[in-house]
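Summary of Year 1 activities. Much of the first year was spent building the evaluation harness for sequence design. The harness presents a backbone, in tokenized form, and records the residue chosen at every position. We chose the following record to illustrate the format because it has been used consistently in internal testing since the harness was completed.
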């Protein structure tokens, strides 16, 4: 009797598998029939996953225009069509996947759970959905050996592992990654759209680990032009094991913390031992000194003004703080372009400098180069500064500070009579223009004091 029951179960299983395989082939036929003209879909093997109500494919290939998708294996569990919204998929697992098109992406392993894919736009097909990641939502995803390149931007990235939780537009989520690199063939690739005349130097960075959260993860990973300005993104990011290379210079830092919301931005970068691979930008700055960079920006609610405070503190050398006040700041959430940045205006700025040893190191370095004693070179430099500042009254107190910087702070302020558009600053500060308009370097526009 037991053998008969087992036979019935086995024969029933064969029947279920046969029907499931037939249904899978019908579903594939419907998918192919719905493809836009010119699109192609192929695979070497397809098998139903009965318990998971899904399917497993081997060596799939999808092509549509200049977009292609290839994967060594792809498993889709429990897809549910939810017209007119799109499709819900409980789980996707892809191995050795490659996307090619305007940008490229590769990953050795991708696992996504509870994925919501919207309907194709106007019958544009699968490529329309995949290359618009701002439109999808998922509960969790893990990418391993992820890398890609951003088309004409000349930028590329690579991540050993990236985990994302609760991804979607206007959906608070979290992300974490290990061993990431990011680089561009030119610094100009990082500038706002429309910016010109930027340095062609290459830029690269690497991070041992990073994590953060955001009120809108899709805005972080896939910003779009039609995002609502009222949907301001808030969040934070923590990075560790940082290395940054720009041109011939390279520096390392231990950690960075960034926080932002609609009205505030804060960043702290710590380097317990500031090091440069080649000669440091300041030749007489000692290697291995601890350093900290702090940037704070505040925009009062319902205004177009912003106050930015940037501090560089190297306790063994000096501490410098730059404070800038702007107006005509773009509205929160607006796309940053060269045009919107140029429309910003500088209201005033103040630079404070407190010396620890940098000025003395400078005089010692220059005295050695000129075969003089440090005191001789200092006196010569102060005489030269007195001549220069006699023509620039706004810097009157600089020689006094240089002669005796200990326990004092130098403060230089620039207060134009009316706000200056950012687009005019480069022209305004040229030597020819300053000679033609000496009032820009005189009180009350430019002032100095020692305190």
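For this record, the design step produced the sequence shown next.
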């Amino acid at each position: 009797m037991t053998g008969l029951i087992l036979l019935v179960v086995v024969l029933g299983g064969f029947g279920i598998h046969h029907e499931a395989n037939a249904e899978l082939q019908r579903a594939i036929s419907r998918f192919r029939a719905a493809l836009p003209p010119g699109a192609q879909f192929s695979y070497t093997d397809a098998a139903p996953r009965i318990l998971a109500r899904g399917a497993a494919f081997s060596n799939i290939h999808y092509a549509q225009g200049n977009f292609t998708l290839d994967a060594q294996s792809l498993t889709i569990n429990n897809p549910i069509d939810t017209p007119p919204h799109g499709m819900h998929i409980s789980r996707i697992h892809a191995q050795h996947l490659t996307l090619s098109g305007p940008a490229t992406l590769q990953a050795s392993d991708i696992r996504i759970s509870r994925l919501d894919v919207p309907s194709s736009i106007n019958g544009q097909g699968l490529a329309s959905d995949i290359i618009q990641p701002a439109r999808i939502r998922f509960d969790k995803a893990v990418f391993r050996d992820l890398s890609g390149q951003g088309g004409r931007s000349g930028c590329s990235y690579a991540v050993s592992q990236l985990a994302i939780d609760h991804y979607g537009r206007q959906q608070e989520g979290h992300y974490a990654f290990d061993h990431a690199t990011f680089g561009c063939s030119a610094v100009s690739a990082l500038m706002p759209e429309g910016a010109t005349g930027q340095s062609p130097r290459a830029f690269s960075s690497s991070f041992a680990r990073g994590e953060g959260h955001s009120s809108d993860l899709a805005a972080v990973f896939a910003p779009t032009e039609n995002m609502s300005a009222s949907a301001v993104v808030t969040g934070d990011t923590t990075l560790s094991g940082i290395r940054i290379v720009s041109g011939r210079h390279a520096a390392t830092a231990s950690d960075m913390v960034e926080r932002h919301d609609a009205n505030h931005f804060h960043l702290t970068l710590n380097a317990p031992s500031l090091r440069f691979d080649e000669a440091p930008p300041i030749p007489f700055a000692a290697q291995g000194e601890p350093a900290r960079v702090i940037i704070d920006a505040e925009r009062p609610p319902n205004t177009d003004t912003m106050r930015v405070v940037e501090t560089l503190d190297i306790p063994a050398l000096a501490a410098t703080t730059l404070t800038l006040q702007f107006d005509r700041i773009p509205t929160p959430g607006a796309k940053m372009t060269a045009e919107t940045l140029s429309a910003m205006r500088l209201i005033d700025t103040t630079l404070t400098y407190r010396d620890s040893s940098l000025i003395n190191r400078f005089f010692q370095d220059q005295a050695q180069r000129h075969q003089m004693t440090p005191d001789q070179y200092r006196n010569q430099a102060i005489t030269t500064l007195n001549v220069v500042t006699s023509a620039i009254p706004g810097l009157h107190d600089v020689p006094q500070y240089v002669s005796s910087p200990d326990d004092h702070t130098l403060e230089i302020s620039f207060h134009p009579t009316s706000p200056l558009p950012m687009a005019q600053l480069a022209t305004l500060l040229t030597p020819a223009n300053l000679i033609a308009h000496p009032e820009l370097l005189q009180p009350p526009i430019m002032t100095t004091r020692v305190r």
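Residues 251 and 326 are 30 Å apart (CA to CA). Quantitative recovery figures across the full test set are reported in Table 2.
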